[in-house]
Each structure stands twice: as C-alpha cells, then as structure tokens.
Design a protein that fits this description.
The complex is a heterodimer of chains A (about 290) and B (about 290).
Chain A lengths: L1 H31 L6 H18 L4 H29 L2 H22 L6 E2 L2 H4 L4 E4 L2 E4 H23 L1 H11 L1 H6 L4 H27 L1 E2 L3 H16 L4 H21 L5 H15 L10
Antiparallel strand pairs in A: 1-4, 2-3
Helix pairs in contact in A: 1-6, 1-7, 1-9, 1-10, 1-11, 2-3, 2-4, 2-9, 2-10, 3-4, 3-9, 6-7, 6-9, 7-9, 10-11, 10-12, 11-12
Chain B lengths: L2 H25 L6 H18 L5 H23 L5 H20 L9 E2 L7 H20 L2 H11 L1 H6 L4 H27 L1 E2 L6 H14 L6 H15 L8 H15 L7 H12 L10
Antiparallel strand pairs in B: 1-2
Helix pairs in contact in B: 1-2, 1-5, 1-6, 1-8, 1-9, 1-10, 2-3, 2-4, 2-8, 3-8, 6-8, 9-10, 9-11
The chains are: A mainly alpha (about 290), B mainly alpha (about 290).
Chain lengths: ~290, ~290
C-alpha cells in the first residue's frame, strides 16, 4: 500500500512536469500555429545552463535559478524568428521537422560542449535528495511534493494569465482566427514574442522543477521528453489547454503505474501504445483541439 | 572498388530507397514517420532470416518486403483516419514501440543487437539493381492515376473526395507501399552493416530521413539522388577538426532549407526548366504554396 501511494506521488510529480510542458507547447501552438518539438530540448538546455552556473559560481543556488529562468526565455525567443517564415506560409507540418532539427542541434551542443556529454549531477541541496515527510506509514519524497506544488502554481498562474488578462485573450484570439484578430488590432509580432517569452519563462520553471525531481541531466533526455510532450499534446487535442493538463497528469500516473507493476522493459511500449490507440480512435484528441 | 566505397554506395542505395519510402506518403500530404519502423522490421527480419534460418539473399529480400507490407498495413489502417500533424507525431510512437519490443525479444538479440549477419558477395551490384528497379517503380507510380490521386489528396482532400477518389483507400495503399520500401531498405542496411542494434532505428535516423527528403526536394523523386550521397558523404568531406559538428551541420542545413527554399534543392520549377531544355516542350505545373 505504501509503495502504491508513493507511486501515485511519483506519477503525479512527473505528470505535473509533462502537464507544464504540454501547457507551454500548447501556448506556442496557439500563438504561432507551430508544433515546437524542441521546447523540451530548450528546457534541458536551461537546466544545463543552470548547472554551468553552479560550476562557475561555486554552487550559488539563487544565481543558478535566475540563470535557468533567463536562459529559458532567451532560448525560446531565439527560436521565434526561425519559425516565422513557416508560420507565415501556414506550414504546420514542416514545423515539426524544423523543430526536430533545432532539437538535434541543441542535443549535439549539449553532448559536445557541456561536460563532454556526461551526465550532469546537481547538488543535493537542490534536489532535496531523499528528504521524506512521513504521514503514518507512508513517506513522501519532499522533491515530489515541491514539484507538484510548483506545477500547480505554475499552471494556475498561466491559466489566470491566459483567461483573465487582456494579453492572454489576445493570444487566444490570434489562435482562433488570425485575420480577424489582426483586424481588431492585435499585433501579430508583439503578441507572438510575448507568447514565446511566457513559454520561455515556463521552460525555465520546468527546468528548475526537473532539477528537483530528476536530479541529473543527460543530453538524450531532451528527445525523450520531447516525444512524450508532443504526443501528450495530441492526445488531449492541440491547443487545448485544460485538456492537456488533465491528460498529462493522467498519463504521468499511467507511466508510474506501468513502471512499478509491469516487467521493466515494457513500460515504454505500453505508454506509447495506449496513446497511439487513443489518438487513432479520436484524431482530434480526447478533448478536441483549439480551446 | 575499395571496401569503404562499396560500403558507402550500398548505404546510399539503402537510404535512397528509404527516402523514397518517405516520399510516397508525403505525396498524399502525410508526413509518415513509420518508415523507420519498417526499416527496423526489415532489418531485423533480414538478420534473423539469414543468420538463424539461413535463407538465401533473394528469398530474404522478398520475405522482408512481405513482412514489411503486413506489419506496415496494420498501422496504416489506423492512420488512414488521421492526417497532418497527428499522423506525423503518432507514427513517431511506432518507432518507440518497435524499439521497446525488439529490446524485449532476446532471440533476435535484444539490447545487445543482432550480429553476425552473413556477408553477401557483390552486394553493391545487387543494391544498384534493386535501386534501379525501385526507381522505375516509383517513377511509374508517380505518373500513374494513383500518383495523381495522391497529389490531389495533398492539394485538397475534400476536392479529391468529390472527384471520386477514395481517400482512405489511397492513404492505406500509399502507407503500405511505403512500408514495403522501408523494409527493403532495412534489409539492405542489415546486410551491409552485418550487425544491427535497436538504437540505430531511432530518432537520429528519423531526422536524417526527413533531412534527406526535405533538403533534396520533397515534391520530386529525383531530389534524394542528390541529397543522400551529399549528406552521407558529409562526414568524409569536412575537415577532421570539424567532424564532431556533423550532426549540427545537418540540423543547420535542414533549418536553412526549410526557411529559405522550402521545396528543397530540386524544386518542380527547376525540373520544369530542365525538361524544357532537354525536350523543348513546355509542361505547366501547378505549384502550390
């Protein structure tokens, strides 16, 4: 029973990270009609930047957090002009390939230049390593709880921004009907950069949460997360923010359960198999696209 | 011919076939990532059949194509309902599923890979013949009613339906043909490498296929003849000091092409001009986007 609850916490924590990734990617889909496959790679790169800061500044954690957040924003905004010609052409399909190209570049940069491609380990004060909170017989890892709280906070703030502020409504309006949005005076360029910037900030936050949960960083992590995030986005419906949150959390749970209770090497097949079947059954996504 | 040259040529041949396998669904507007999945199936079947069952080369090739058709047909049935982005992303899942399955099957080597695939003499010549035959097949397909049906589906699926084209059937047909070619390519690859791992048939291969397709010219079948040798030869041409940067250069080439010359190097207009010069005829082509 204890392991079951612990697994649920694990699943919720990873699910929370997936949810934030999906949220960020959905935002970019809404704002520019692109599928930003390399968003997860940017998260990993920001984590690496944080690690570099730790090395250079002798484990100054606050500085590392600030650098991670800023690098998230910077790298995401850097990719904006790359996607702009495709956005103008309305070529949604190609954006995946383009983003995959960017992703490979980021992965290569990480494996060549940053620590020679070895795993990056973060100091235990950041990962909250092994600190447990005990309620009765069940112990929860502090890192998981903090991650979960972080995810919930980030999601709530983001949803508040998108649904209650003028800029957020502008972003969603651009997604619904671009021409009318322009006619109504919504600036295409500035709102786009705003959207990218927010997604970048979110990427930095995700990077910090990942440091807490995962504790290490490998160059190939970007690819793993990228595929999972993009597939979860489709699973819920592209551009559907609320649906994305729920389904990502759910699939995080499924993954944790599969990891714990199925023989080790089948987890991936199960994870992707389930998602593929659902996508084929409902191509629009479980909740429908374009909220 | 030196061994490294034959090695390189066979690789080019295998990848030209693989890119053609990606090209055919793209003619109907589908970015199908299951070509790598079929390559894995073909490769592992070839390795298993020739090593453990000891079947001769021609039988294995035909067997790989049949197995590829079968195992590619089943997902194709599912993908006929989806389109565009959805197909692209969920076919990525196929790759992971097959990698996972292969890792679990120890009798074909599991994570250790399948080694000791028997050597085939004169593989270069066989590969060349196979590439030529496949090329003729792709050419005839492109210029037939089926090929035109594919193109109309890409331009406007709803209009295609009103013209009486069964979009679902055509999609399934295209995807199955793609699976056959993918498996064929995988078999050739396995015979060339003589050892294969599950990791080979993963993401970087997928990206390489996309690069070769998009950079070469995504609306024609001749583009890959140009992009495959160049991209495969790239590590050999750049100076040794930059060899670490090979993947980065691939990525940059892909990004530049997609941004600046979306149709790829060999566009339809370019083909038109060449045809005009050769035959003196004027063939009008509707260039969309």
């Amino acid at each position: 029973m204890e392991t079951f609850v612990a697994q649920i916490m694990n699943g919720l924590a990873t699910g929370g990270i997936y949810a934030l990734l999906v949220l960020g990617m959905n935002l970019l889909v809404l704002v520019r009609n692109i599928v930003h496959h390399s968003y997860s790679h940017i998260v990993m790169l920001s984590m690496a930047m944080g690690w570099l800061t730790l090395q250079k500044s002798n484990n100054n954690i606050i500085l590392a957090i600030i650098v991670t957040l800023i690098s998230g924003i910077v790298f995401t905004i850097i990719t904006e002009p790359i996607f702009r010609p495709l956005s103008k052409r309305g070529a949604e399909l190609e954006t995946i390939v383009l983003a995959m190209g960017v992703g490979i570049i980021i992965t290569e940069i990480m494996s060549q230049f940053i620590n020679g491609g070895a795993n990056l380990a973060y100091p235990s004060s950041m990962t909250g390593a092994g600190l447990q909170i005990n309620i009765g017989l069940i112990s929860f890892s502090l890192a998981n709880i903090l991650t979960l709280i972080g995810c919930v906070l980030a999601a709530v703030i983001l949803m508040w921004f998108l649904f209650r502020t003028r800029e957020g409504r502008a972003i969603r309006a651009m997604a619904q009907n671009l021409r009318v949005a322009k006619m109504l005076g919504i600036p295409y360029g500035k709102t786009g950069i705003l959207g990218f910037g927010i997604a970048g900030l979110l990427a930095g936050v995700i990077a910090i949460l990942c440091i807490m949960t995962l504790g290490t960083n490998t160059p190939s992590l970007g690819d793993t997360f990228a595929v999972k995030a993009i597939i979860l986005m489709l699973f819920a419906g592209m551009g559907n923010l609320k649906g994305g949150l729920i389904s990502a959390l759910f699939m995080g749970l499924v993954e944790a359960m599969a990891l714990a209770y199925l023989p080790g090497r089948w987890t991936e097949a199960v994870f992707y198999g389930v998602i593929m079947l659902v996508i084929i059954w409902k191509p629009q996504g479980l909740f429908g696209s374009q909220h | 011919m030196s061994t490294s040259m034959t090695y390189y040529l066979i690789f080019c041949g295998a990848f030209i076939i693989l890119t053609w396998a990606a090209y055919i669904p793209f003619r109907s507007g589908l970015l199908y990532n299951g070509t790598v999945y079929c390559m894995a199936i073909g490769g592992y079947f070839a390795g298993f059949a020739s090593k453990t069952l000891g079947l001769p080369f021609p039988v294995v090739i035909i067997g790989a194509m049949l197995v590829g058709a079968l195992l590619g047909f089943i997902p194709a049935l599912g993908f006929s309902r989806t389109s565009g982005v959805v197909t692209a992303v969920s076919s990525m899942a196929l790759i992971f599923i097959i990698q996972s399955v292969i890792r679990n099957m120890d009798f074909i080597g599991g994570s250790r890979g399948l080694s000791g695939i028997p050597k085939v003499e004169n593989l270069v010549i066989y590969t060349a013949i196979i590439v030529v035959i496949t090329g003729i097949f792709v050419y005839r397909l492109d210029h037939s009613r089926i090929g035109r049906a594919f193109e109309s589906i890409q331009t406007d699926p709803d209009m295609a339906k009103t013209l009486g084209i069964n979009v679902k059937k055509m999609t399934i047909l295209g995807l199955t043909i793609s699976s056959v070619l993918g498996a064929l390519s995988g078999a050739l690859y396995a015979y060339n490498m003589r050892i294969i791992y599950p990791e080979t048939f993963g993401f970087s291969l997928l990206l390489s296929v996309q690069t070769m397709l998009f950079v070469g010219g995504r609306y024609t079948q001749w583009g890959m003849l140009l992009s495959v040798p160049i991209l495969w030869g790239l590590p050999g041409w750049i100076p040794k000091s930059m060899s670490n940067y090979a993947q980065i250069i691939y990525g940059i080439i892909l990004i530049l092409v997609l941004m600046l010359r979306p149709e790829g190097i060999i566009t339809r207009e370019l083909l038109n001009k060449i045809k005009k010069v050769i035959t003196g005829k004027n063939k009008t082509v509707n260039v969309n986007q």
